[in-house]
Batch of 2 targets.
Target 1
Amino acid sequence: MWPGFTTGESARIFGFLHKLRPYLRLDECCLVGSLAIQWRLHEAGIEPGRDRPLNDLDMIARSPASIDARAARAFEVGHQHQRDSRFYLTLIDPATQLKLDIFTWAGDDDRAQMVKLAGQRWPVSSAEHQLVATLADAQKPTHGQELDPKQLTALEHLLAITDQPRAGAIWQEHYPAGPGFEAALQTAAMVARRYPHLVRPLEHTAPAAKPCTDCVALSGWQGAAS
């Protein structure tokens, strides 16, 4: 089982990942989001569980080329966005009813740490890097964006298991022009009180391949599904 998920959810997760694996350059990809959070908490002996249904997975990749374009024949392709070196791609698997959001892995960091699950090794984000990503999300209400309170819960758990000086250094590296690490933590501690209309559970719908008007074929993905 993947820590923090039910037996049924774990079967869906591994079903998706095993199907995806042949199309990945694993040394250029890293699992992030809830998969990373639950693994790192389990590793630290914390089993908080989850109270939300599993809808999607998250991954970062160095470039669109990190995912073989032939994946478009095995998965439904949702969004494809690209601006300069940054990109966003979604892959949907109707069999497991899961969507994978793939974001740009920017910078030259060592966040990926290999863990062994179900007989295979997978790159999973370090707790400190995941803390920084979650803390960045926690700033969204100050910019008028909605925030699911599960992010604040995850932040609280991650703060209990991370090396905060290291996390602070990572924060400064990623957001040199933004608020400092301690200031960001103070903001996160008050957003639910200050922005109650923006901090609320977000609705999730069944994943569907519905490209938007901003979608463009990623480099190397033109006609990939043909």
Note: Strands lie at 29-32, 56-61, 76-83, 86-93, 98-104, 112-117, 120-125.
Target 2
Amino acid sequence: MRIAEHRRFDRVEVRVVRIVNPATLQVARLHNPRETFTLRLIGVGGDVPADPQSIEQVKHQIAEQTLLLVAGHTSAPDESACWAWAYLPDGRLLNEWVVAEGLSPASDDPPHDLQWWMGRLERRARSTERGIWRQKTGP
């Protein structure tokens, strides 16, 4: 089933094929692994450069795991990409973890119900200098 065959979906299980940046993943459906699509994490800003250290942290967190995408919707004009909340097998929300670890800023695009919470997680990551908010020292 192609992502373009439905504009909204309730639940889809996927495997990560490639990490573009902490907010953008290339994924494949479990039931059709040859068909891949781009996943944007709702509430996570994707306009930061792909920091190799951040990508490694995300890779370590999701290695060999199935993600459950919930309440997703397509975003690209050709519907080859989607926005979704992504849950790890242990029930943690990947979107929340990425922002809380300071791997990417919070985003309100597209608008969502947890904007205040994601903003709070970003402020906490900034104040504790986590991830991309860490102070650079030396040359």
Note: Confidence is low (pLDDT under 50) at residues 1-7.
